[in-house]
């Protein structure tokens, strides 16, 4: 009600001020009326004089022009009537003239002509002084009529400045009567009348123009009268409108007050009551009305509903998630029951303590430092944290931590919402227990070869391993490999190293001082024992057949060992040592030739890129396309060579970094040209190469429009998170908007830990799991677990090696996000894809 009383007071004040203002305006208007009438009379009279002057300008000019004619000067002497009939008589109807007089130099009348509707007048120039004026306008009054004359001395064209004696005089005349004045009245709001000097009346409200004779005497007046009826009418109308406006304003204010009280103040009162009591019944009817207050009431209803909903959400979050708040210094100010339940601490033990009370020592040293740097910059931090309970046991949470700001924009506190993902980590741990061999990969073998001057290498291959998988299943095959790994580790000398190259292939490496024959003999001894004893798995004996391919000494060691293994397969021997004298050198030369092919292709720009589409399965069809960038070599005959033939060799020959930079450069150019997203493979070796990383950063800096459209696929990601250089690199590419993917995910179940540590955007499930998805139940179960794991962490999943329809159907069935493979899109050159874009 306070608003209503205040409004009534303001209305009274406004009404009073309005009355005073309108009265002042009325008195001011009355004073201005008289001034306006006088000013308007003067303005109209000045305009009338200007029109009169403008109207006779053509006659003045015409008289001056005719008086300059040489023919006119001649006519004064000859009075050639045929000439006057052609040149003078037409002037009367053309210019509205009634009289033409021509006098000779002695002012004797030599020619006279008049229109038929006027009387003849006698006209004499004897009193005109030609030396005083070259042109004269005057009036003549005779028999109650005024005649206006225009007189111009006649000169020849040679006397342009009219300095000589005139040859005669040209006089043009017209009646200056009421008919003429009436025609002029159309351009004025007033009227005009002619009076002789003797008959001129004396009036107050009139304006006059004196009419002069040839001798400059005043012989009459043109009186101009301005009628002020329009101004008076407008003044009366203003008075009426002013009074009517007053009545309307008064009535409007009263009506407005009564209406607003009902339409505005009553609803406002209900809105106030609803807000105070949180009872929406007060404004339920109002919220359905289609006006501003109805909209406000509707918004209040929605706000109340949302508040109730948010309260339910808060209860649901408190019930199902782990929530805590801290002040700006990280001191816990709130912890929900879920936090207390999972940590084992009571509320009293948590409040007022720093959040590191639950920190687990296994987290990297810089983990929380980087987290706090992100938060203090005002950004949200997301990640998986390993925490420690009060009893010392560990649990894992997927956390989202947000800074909350005060009115000045400063960080006031932090809120953290966490989900318990310990079960997922238990799955990871379970999968880690099924890890195949715990052996370093091929990459580490190459590094070991590079470091030694006296290497010995044996490549081991399990004969018929595919049949073992087919007969007993993939799970048993994995178990078979683990038993073999343990067996070989027991048999090999402690100074040797053992590597897992691929599913059924291993390597024994020795860089200790040892004769070639001694290494060969030791390998034969290991082979003999393995072949004789076989493997005992789950108290069952399984025979074991192996092949060894051996090479010794520096120089293409791995290539020579591979050649020996190839010979062992082809000759069905189980032990072959590389020997240049046995024709192996020819095969080695092929490797060397490939090296030269790579070198020449680099020099001659014969590398190119192919693109294979990564097809989205759950987004709009017209979404921006995404491609993986694949390198290809064009030989001297124009044939396209797959990287299968040269990638491993390029790594051994230290050419791989050049190929990586080529793929980066061409891939980014393709993204710009095709307006697409691209995915580029990158290895730890690339990341550790400063030239490669500097080149990538420079390219990303050059093309800022590609932010969010470049994905880097980490290949051979084992151990990648333990490197400070790698972590720094990953942070840097995030600043350029790059997305991160793990390639060949699921191969050997060796990279779940990296998935959780690296905070990736995509995982690409290894093709070895996808290619048999429709027939291998174990592969299906594994892919399902991986997909479920990724979905829980908000990571998108890509299925590689989709080579047929049945595989695609299984991929869709598992709710995988993207698919890639020959069934969907074969790798194609950029030019072909670009032409397809243009045609569509």
UniProtKB/TrEMBL annotation:
<dbReference type="InterPro" id="IPR029787">
    <property type="entry name" value="Nucleotide_cyclase"/>
</dbReference>
<dbReference type="Pfam" id="PF05228">
    <property type="entry name" value="CHASE4"/>
</dbReference>
<dbReference type="Pfam" id="PF08447">
    <property type="entry name" value="PAS_3"/>
</dbReference>
<dbReference type="InterPro" id="IPR050706">
    <property type="entry name" value="Cyclic-di-GMP_PDE-like"/>
</dbReference>
<feature type="domain" description="PAC">
    <location>
        <begin position="379"/>
        <end position="433"/>
    </location>
</feature>
<dbReference type="Pfam" id="PF00563">
    <property type="entry name" value="EAL"/>
</dbReference>
<dbReference type="InterPro" id="IPR013655">
    <property type="entry name" value="PAS_fold_3"/>
</dbReference>
<dbReference type="InterPro" id="IPR000700">
    <property type="entry name" value="PAS-assoc_C"/>
</dbReference>
<dbReference type="InterPro" id="IPR007892">
    <property type="entry name" value="CHASE4"/>
</dbReference>
<feature type="transmembrane region" description="Helical">
    <location>
        <begin position="6"/>
        <end position="27"/>
    </location>
</feature>
<keyword id="KW-0812">Transmembrane</keyword>
<keyword id="KW-0472">Membrane</keyword>
<feature type="domain" description="PAS">
    <location>
        <begin position="327"/>
        <end position="378"/>
    </location>
</feature>
<dbReference type="InterPro" id="IPR043128">
    <property type="entry name" value="Rev_trsase/Diguanyl_cyclase"/>
</dbReference>
<dbReference type="InterPro" id="IPR035919">
    <property type="entry name" value="EAL_sf"/>
</dbReference>
<dbReference type="InterPro" id="IPR000160">
    <property type="entry name" value="GGDEF_dom"/>
</dbReference>
<dbReference type="Pfam" id="PF00990">
    <property type="entry name" value="GGDEF"/>
</dbReference>
<feature type="transmembrane region" description="Helical">
    <location>
        <begin position="240"/>
        <end position="259"/>
    </location>
</feature>
<dbReference type="GO" id="GO:0071111">
    <property type="term" value="F:cyclic-guanylate-specific phosphodiesterase activity"/>
</dbReference>
<keyword id="KW-1133">Transmembrane helix</keyword>
<dbReference type="InterPro" id="IPR000014">
    <property type="entry name" value="PAS"/>
</dbReference>
<dbReference type="InterPro" id="IPR035965">
    <property type="entry name" value="PAS-like_dom_sf"/>
</dbReference>
<dbReference type="InterPro" id="IPR001610">
    <property type="entry name" value="PAC"/>
</dbReference>
<feature type="domain" description="EAL">
    <location>
        <begin position="591"/>
        <end position="840"/>
    </location>
</feature>
<dbReference type="InterPro" id="IPR001633">
    <property type="entry name" value="EAL_dom"/>
</dbReference>
<protein>
    <submittedName>
        <fullName>Putative methyl-accepting chemotaxis sensory transducer with Pas/Pac sensor</fullName>
    </submittedName>
</protein>
